[in-house]
Amino acid sequence: MRDLAEKWSVTPDWDLAAITAPGLMVRALAGLDQVLVSGDLDAWANVSGLEGTGVGAFGAARGDRYTVRLARDRLLAVSGTPLTIAAGWHPEGFAVTPISAGLRAFEIEGTAVDAFIARGATLDPNQASPSAALSFAGINAIAYRHEDKLRIHVDRGLAAYLWTWMEQAAGHIAAGN
Amino acid sequence: MQLFPCPFCGPRDESEFHYGGHAGNARPDGAGMPAEGWAGYLYLRPNPKGTAREIWVHMNCGEFFVMERDTVSHTVLSVTTLGGEHAA
User: Fold this and answer.
1) Which of A55, A123, A159, B77 has its CA 20 to 30 A from that of B10?
2) Which residue in chain B has the smallest CA separation from A69?
């Protein structure tokens, strides 16, 4: 019987996986607490104490706990420590959905980040866009800057594909192609 | 590549958008609707040379909106989010 698993690339060990090229370093982020917030984002800000606007595409987030805007009425809250707000509907007018297990996050740093972005996205990284939800490497992704690094969140099922794409992109950048 | 303006996100690559039909094609209501009415709703489409009003969705943020564009020059004339209260 054919082993169809051979058709697929082996999922990296995310704790150890790293891509290095001149001016580029990519690694997977572990331990981020992530929740989707939908509905009245001003009410969310009042209840949670976090930003209700959130950073947009390639916008700069700072600190250990921040929000990223996905749509007019939806954002992603990210924290390095567990968020204490309860999941489910809040009568103030918003819903909270834990999605830590659904999204895989990557962090990219180095002087070649702009070249890396240029290969993955058609969006001008210097042109502000209110939403960080965009197409990157042909898939839906959430892309923004955290401190001086680029962070990308994708559906966990697409993480191995994106990793393969990033390995190839880093190879092309290193080769000057 | 063409840039389409999402009412919320701003200019984005056309590949991020999906066409949802021409605007104003409301689903017929009522069991008494004759076959011609259903046929018009399901199959008959305008094919204007010039200004067209169409429904599009920006798949990354989920925004549904009406886009008015010129089918000859491909110029986008206006975009208005469905519901209207957040018109760009």
Assistant:
1) A159
2) B61
Task: Count Cβ atoms within 10 A of the Cβ of residue A33 and give its class: 0-12 exposed, 13-18 middle, 19 or more buried.
Answer: middle
pTM: 0.91
Tokens found for residue A31? 């331990």
Q: For residues A53 and A66, what is the distance between their CA atoms, to the nearest angstrom?
A: 10
What domain range is B77 assigned to? 3-24+34-81
Do A79 and A87 form a contact (C-beta atoms < 8 A)?
A: no
Nearest CA in chain A to B7: A72
Question: Residue A71 is nearest to which of B1, B16, B62, comparing CB atoms?
Answer: B62
A70 in B contact zone (CB under 8 Å): yes
Arithmetic mean of pLDDT over chain A: 94
Topology of domain A19-175 in CATH is Gyrase A; domain 2 (3.30.1360)
